[in-house]
């Protein structure tokens, strides 16, 4: 009888922990998923009147002033990566 | 080889140096007419003008390569550490000299790591904003990231920017997945049960040439640039060079005492970085705990979410924050929280990876003991797990604080005059061509950074820096 006593004394409190993990998950959604999702939403809306339109993509990937930077970026990245193939000491 | 530790330390130092400061320093060294290297060339050879021009695509490539080679270094050196010396020894016994041994045995063994490192450098370079902004915007030669920045200048086109940013995100995500596959698949089994005695390679007379080759990147990424920055920060006008009468401490006085904007920016940088580090570390520990103990349905997804910002370029993340939180229902734009949350998100993966590996090394027994005694999940977490993780938590905090202090790419999009940080002031000064105060601010920022690195090193030793491969 007496051996079981300490276990009876340790009263179980309500477990609040799922709340904490859920809050952490919610903050992660707010920090990671919401911003990325909003890029997607913004990209299909017009800057002028906020209409739903694919025009942004057409403009970004047909005009040559916007295509040149993409070419430059690829050149820049490829050339920067090349000399790093160097063995370490 | 002599000076192995020195080279490791220097490589780490160039890893901590933000490339936009490197780019600025290279303006002093290699600007078309006034650059010091160009003028030295003219003085030495009598040529009409120097041959270096940093304001070109090639110039930007050089600067970016200088500051991204530490990534490759990290990958390759950790792979090299796994190459057992016996394999190299056997080749030697069969009569191969060291050059042949390296070429035929060592390099093939670490090839996957070399390719992975190069992919990492590519990822970094394509997402890089600072260097192209400092070197290529004046040259009117845009890359994706600077073009994204221009979309936010008047008349601003945030939605067009979003459409333009998505393919960049697609590229970084797919390259990252490719790199992960390479690292998993192309691995040779080199770790065997039979002891791995590490015998240092004898280079003989080749020692010094090899040392010279290894010293080349640190000279160009650290020694020359920091000399240039320091000299400029102590000059009235950098173009006049280090002559008597040009020496002044006025710019440090300007940054630390006189100029309210600069002083406020320093205070903002430190406090925002501290807040971001606290948020990221707390969130990382909680979510890593929930994932490792499977406390939520879909816990693994939580882990992927926490690691996701790793592949999102800073600029793209900033555009997302702008799109999501610059208009109702939730307006963070204009408040300090915009920057704090963005920094916390950007460097969350560092803290998460650290917490996860620390948690994995904890045995469940200790937690179970507390739970058997009737302690709830939360109490156990607070009383047992957190104290056991204390060292790792502190290390993660510092590892988020350091990059937050010098973060430029997301700050440029998200700041307002009331919330400007050091990097915003540096960016504006560069735009105006005020290089002397810029250098003073840059030196102050790096002094803070290296001070913290020294603290971290004292507290935790070199292991802390091993776990980290990306800022």
From TrEMBL, chain A:
Database matches in InterPro entries: MetI-like_sf (IPR035906)
GO cellular component: membrane
Membrane among keywords: yes
Keyword Transmembrane helix set for record: yes
Membrane topology: Multi-pass membrane protein
Entry's transmembrane regions: 20-41
UniProt subcellular location: Membrane
Keywords, comma-separated and alphabetical: Membrane, Transmembrane, Transmembrane helix
Protein name: Carbohydrate ABC transporter permease
TrEMBL record, chain B:
Cited CDD domains: TM_PBP2 (cd06261)
Residues covered by the ABC transmembrane type-1 domain: 1-179, 266-456
Annotated Pfam families: BPD_transp_1
Gene3D superfamilies: MetI-like
Membrane-related topology note: Multi-pass membrane protein
Transmembrane segments: 54-80, 113-139, 159-178, 208-228, 270-291, 303-325, 331-352, 439-460
Keywords for this protein: Cell inner membrane, Cell membrane, Membrane, Transmembrane, Transmembrane helix, Transport
Keyword GTP-binding attached: no
SUPFAM superfamilies associated with the record: MetI-like (SSF161098)
InterPro entries: MetI-like, MetI-like_sf
Compartments, record wording: Cell inner membrane; Cell membrane
One BP annotation, GO: transmembrane transport
Major subcellular location class: membrane
Recorded family membership: Belongs to the binding-protein-dependent transport system permease family.
Name of the protein: Iron ABC transporter permease
């Amino acid at each position: 009888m007496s051996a079981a006593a300490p276990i009876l004394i340790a009263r179980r409190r309500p477990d609040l922990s799922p709340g904490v993990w859920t809050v952490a998950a919610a903050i992660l959604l707010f920090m990671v998923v919401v911003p990325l999702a909003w890029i997607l939403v913004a990209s299909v809306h017009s800057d002028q009147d906020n209409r739903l339109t694919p025009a942004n993509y057409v403009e970004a990937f047909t005009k040559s002033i916007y295509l040149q930077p993409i070419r430059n970026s690829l050149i820049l990245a490829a050339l920067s990566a090349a000399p790093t193939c160097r063995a370490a000491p | 080889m002599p000076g192995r530790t020195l080279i490791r330390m220097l490589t780490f130092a160039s890893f901590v140096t933000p490339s936009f400061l490197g780019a600025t320093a290279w303006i002093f060294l290699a600007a078309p007419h006034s650059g010091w290297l160009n003028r030295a060339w003219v003085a030495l050879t009598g040529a009409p003008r120097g041959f270096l021009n940093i304001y070109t695509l090639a110039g930007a490539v050089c600067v970016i390569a200088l500051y991204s080679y530490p990534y490759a270094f990290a990958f390759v050196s950790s792979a090299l550490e796994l190459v057992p010396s016996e394999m190299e020894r056997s080749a030697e016994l069969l009569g191969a000299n060291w050059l042949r041994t390296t070429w035929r045995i060592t390099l093939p063994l670490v090839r996957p790591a070399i390719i992975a490192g190069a992919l990492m450098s590519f990822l970094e370079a394509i997402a890089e904003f600072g260097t192209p902004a400092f070197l290529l915007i004046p040259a009117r030669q845009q890359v994706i990231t600077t073009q994204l920045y221009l979309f936010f200048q008047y008349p601003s086109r945030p939605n067009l920017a979003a459409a333009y940013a998505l393919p960049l995100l697609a590229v970084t995500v797919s390259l990252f997945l490719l790199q992960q596959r390479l690292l998993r698949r192309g691995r040779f089994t080199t770790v065997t049960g039979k002891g791995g005695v590490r015998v240092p390679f004898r280079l003989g007379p080749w020692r010094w040439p090899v040392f010279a080759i290894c010293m080349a990147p640190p000279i160009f990424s650290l020694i020359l640039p920091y000399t240039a920055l320091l000299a400029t920060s102590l000059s009235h006008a950098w173009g006049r060079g280090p002559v008597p009468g040009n020496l002044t401490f006025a710019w440090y006085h300007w940054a630390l005492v006189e100029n309210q904007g600069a002083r406020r920016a320093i205070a903002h940088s430190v406090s925002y970085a501290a807040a971001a580090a606290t948020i990221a570390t707390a969130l990382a520990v909680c979510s890593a705990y929930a994932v490792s103990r499977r406390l939520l349905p879909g816990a693994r997804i939580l882990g992927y979410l926490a690691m996701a910002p790793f592949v999102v370029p800073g600029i793209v993340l900033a555009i997302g924050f702008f799109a999501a939180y610059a208009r109702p229902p939730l307006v963070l734009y204009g408040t300090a929280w915009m920057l704090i949350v963005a920094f916390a998100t950007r460097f969350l993966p560092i803290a998460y990876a650290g917490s996860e590996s620390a948690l994995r090394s904890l045995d469940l027994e200790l937690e179970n003991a507390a739970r058997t005694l009737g302690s709830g999940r939360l109490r156990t977490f607070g009383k047992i797990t957190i104290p056991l993780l204390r060292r790792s938590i502190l290390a993660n905090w510092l590892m988020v604080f350091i990059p937050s202090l010098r973060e430029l790419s997301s700050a440029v999009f998200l700041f307002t005059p009331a919330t400007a940080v050091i990097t915003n002031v540096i960016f504006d000064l560069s735009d105006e061509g005020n290089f002397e105060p810029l250098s003073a601010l840059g030196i102050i920022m790096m002094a803070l950074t290296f001070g913290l690195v020294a603290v971290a090193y004292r507290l935790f030793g070199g292991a802390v820096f091993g776990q980290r491969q990306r800022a």
